Amino acid sequence: MKKVIFILMLMFLTFGCSQKPDTEYVKSIKEFHKERIERLKKPDSWLSLVGLYWLKEGKNTFGSDKLNDIILPNNFGSDNLGIFTLKDSTVTVEIIGNQKVFCNDTIVTSQIMFSDLTDNPTILKFGSFSWFAIQRGDKFGIRVKDSEAPLLKEFSDIEMFEIDSTWKIPAEFIEYETPKEVLTPTAIGTFEKTEVLGYLAFTIGNQFFTVEPSASENGFFLVFGDKSNGEETYGAGRFLYIEKSNSAKQLYIDINKAYNPPCVFTKYATCPLPRKENNLNIKVLAGEKNFHSKYH
């Protein structure tokens, strides 16, 4: 009996003591990830994206009928809902018949569609579907979402690497005398103009690196690639926001907060890709892992 008690005590000490409580830092990363997952579960998130249709100049009919210029999913609910017209870089929509399409709470019969590059893009709704105009360079398209999309309904989580505080890396921001404009490639083969104010310098292990993030509201936004892309992580890189610190130059690159771009979920996104200046010649095994879905 004493031998059994001793073994049970040994098991408790071995397994109980090995499970260290989360530090405040680990808790903060878990909370960051939880909030990210909650945003993705919302009915209008990237997981609800079911279509992207580039407009031709002039009239573009749309609906689920195959004779339309824009053929929407079979469950769209209307064979012929209306016409998008692209003229002189302006997109308008006209609804056919008495079909109930809403902008906010108002039924729409015709409407100018302000794109996603404006302060107040026009969002129209029909049943579980919604859509809005996007502009990429000189191209205009219609992005369609479905709050009943299968991926959205089945999604639960994204796997992460083990949280390791050593991936919270001190960095120094070196500001350029004159901001420079760079061209960032995208998943659809276009380029976006991006303003770069300077570069971040940091070390991982004994290796020195620099990256050129773009400015964001409260810090910097980085699209980066590394040697794990296409294996442990998404092939087209990951995103990372870098918060400004109280110091003008000293800040932290917290790669535990690296996350997948929308293109990992859907082929209908137009994600920016890492510029060559932002490709790291090591494996960065922190943040979100690759995400696989039968819907993509």
Folded structure, characterized:
By secondary structure, the protein is mainly β. The chain folds into 2 domains: 46-154, Tumour Suppressor Smad4 (Sandwich), CATH 2.60.200; 157-278, no CATH class. It contains 3 helices and 18 strands. The protein has helices spanning 2-18, 24-40, 150-154, and strands at 49-54, 58-63, 70-71, 82-87, 90-95, 102-103, 106-107, 110-113, 124-126, 129-136, 139-146, 168-185, 191-204, 207-211, 214-216, 219-224, 238-243, 250-254. The strands form 4 sheets. The protein has a 6-stranded antiparallel β-sheet with strand order 1-11-10-9-6-7, with no helix packed on it. It has a 5-stranded mixed β-sheet with strand order 3-2-4-5-8, with no helix packed on it. A 4-stranded antiparallel β-sheet has the order 14-13-12-18, with no helix packed on it. A hairpin with a 2-residue loop joins strand 15 and strand 16. The longest helix is centred in the first third of the chain and has 17 residues, at 2-18. The radius of gyration is 24 Å and the shape is globular. It starts with a helix and ends in a 42-residue tail after the last strand. The model is unreliable at 1-19 (pLDDT under 50).
Short description:
The chain has 296 residues and is mainly beta. The chain contains 3 helices and 18 strands.
Descriptive terms for the model:
single chain; 296 residues; mainly beta; Tumour Suppressor Smad4; 2 domains; six-stranded antiparallel β-sheet; five-stranded mixed β-sheet; 3 helices; 18 strands
